[in-house]
Predict the 3D structure of the following.
Amino acid sequence: MRSLLILLEKEFRQVFRNSAILRMIFMMPAVQLLVMPLAADYEVKNVKIVVVDYDHSPYSRKLVNKITSTAYFTLVDYTDSYNKALTLVEKDQADLVLQIPSAFEKQIVREDKSTLFLAINAINGTKANLGSAYLRSIIADFNQEIRLDWVQFPRMNPQPVIAISSINWFNPLMNYRFFMVPGILVILVTLVGAFLSALNIVKEKEVGTIEQINVTPIRKYQFILGKLIPFWVLGLVILSIGLLLSRLVYGILPAGSFLTIYIYAAIYLLAVLGLGLLVSTFANTQQQAMLLSFFMMIVFILLGGLYTSIDSMPEWAQWFTKINPVAYFIEVMRMVVLKGSTLHDIRFHILATFGFAVILNGLAVWNYRKRS
Amino acid sequence: MKAIEVNNLTKRFANFTAVDHITFDVAEGEIFGFLGANGAGKTTAMRMLCGLSLPTSGEAMVAGLDLNTHAEKIKRRIGYMSQKFSLYEDLTVRENIRFYGGIYGLTNAEIKSRTAEVLANLNITNEANVLVKSLPLGWRQKLSFSVAILHQPKIVFLDEPTGGVDPITRREFWTMIYEAASKGTTIFVTTHYMDEAEYCHRVSIMVDGRIEALGTPKELKANFNAEGMSDVFLKLARKAKRGDD
């Protein structure tokens, strides 16, 4: 027991003397939480549109006004040359080209119909999709308005109309940040748990001090506990800083209890510390450890449901998320923070995460034995 | 009683025999030089004696305990200083002493009094709270040695302790070794400096995993009809078939 205390004393001294670790602990949550939610936003705004107007009628101008009065579109050019519009698309200065045919107004008035032409720059698929969808709904709306002017509806509408009213549960304003911030907190905790702990253990190998430790009466399990406990504590500290920041900056107060979050995080950290330990058994230098953890973190984060919905992933990727601890924590954070889920609601997540902890630590110990 | 008794100790890796049936013993309080060219198997033999790796076959008694059954207990009775620097550079002198004292089970009072002793002996009382990385190499090596014998082990293993150190500091280092030996600590030392071999009470020379010569420097020089230890070493080491590994 005293050996362990002496080890912990030494580890904490080293951590607090290492300015790189301290910077990472305090700067990382600040930067990630303040910058990432602003940039990582699915909403498409400022779609750049070029209108090619061959008609120049009151109707065509009315349509253009309607489009530019929304926040979604920026009118880049208003021209009467389709080739010029296409050049703008080629130079990536425009995303959408709307072509209004000559005699647009006349056709509507006389023949009750006209055709608009839409050309989309589809390099960025999401932007193209959403941009054209917005534009279609604006045109549909415009269509309704002008029909009122020209068509006399019968008293009984022959077309049944179904009105849809919806309610947004758990995130009523559909605030994207409420969705992103809890997920980013998970990444922070994971980085500290897996990344820093692996680097720290490998450092002893690289410098050679581990040889010295091996000839002392310190047992292996004491050494490992001495390494993992400080990062377990640091992980919870960084989680607290993150929760505080998200309260102060984004006004996010978990709907569920903090206790639930901390209990889950405590178990989750056991699993990622096991991952760090496993990495440290493979790597001999800090550089190797860094590259290995970096590779794994990228996979875990991209297939963890932070940026993209797990439900829309291909089936093999969905299976992978079942063995991805990061995906579990992201889901738990969103459940607890947004829905107010209780320990009972996340019991399967807890069980699975505990399973990861046992398996990852077991693998680490097994691989360590095999190699020594 | 002997400090170390080794009998047919062997270490094989796959089909390579690093240490091939070596047999020798070291008396208590003796300074025993363990020489050999690079790749001769010195380090492997030493790692086995420290309990860092298990022998493939053979027996050894270290500090009165059987290596095959009590490797963990042996660790409490020995000290070790490797060629790789073994102190924590980001801890101060005082913190390093406290750490190593603590893991060998010294009480806080013992740590305090021995810290004062070490600082006074090395004449670095003013540098007690300086990070080890800012000390000159010679000071660090002497500090390493002091830390390795802090818990008053029966035997201390030194793996090329003076590598890269200037001649004056090496001299001072050997004075410290003699002092420790005079207090009854057995010294087991490997070195590539043949003048240091002359300082040892007895010397063994390993070639290709086997001990080819063993005796006092005087005996060895007489047996091999050589001027100094380096002649003895050269005559033996030239027979080696193994290169560096």
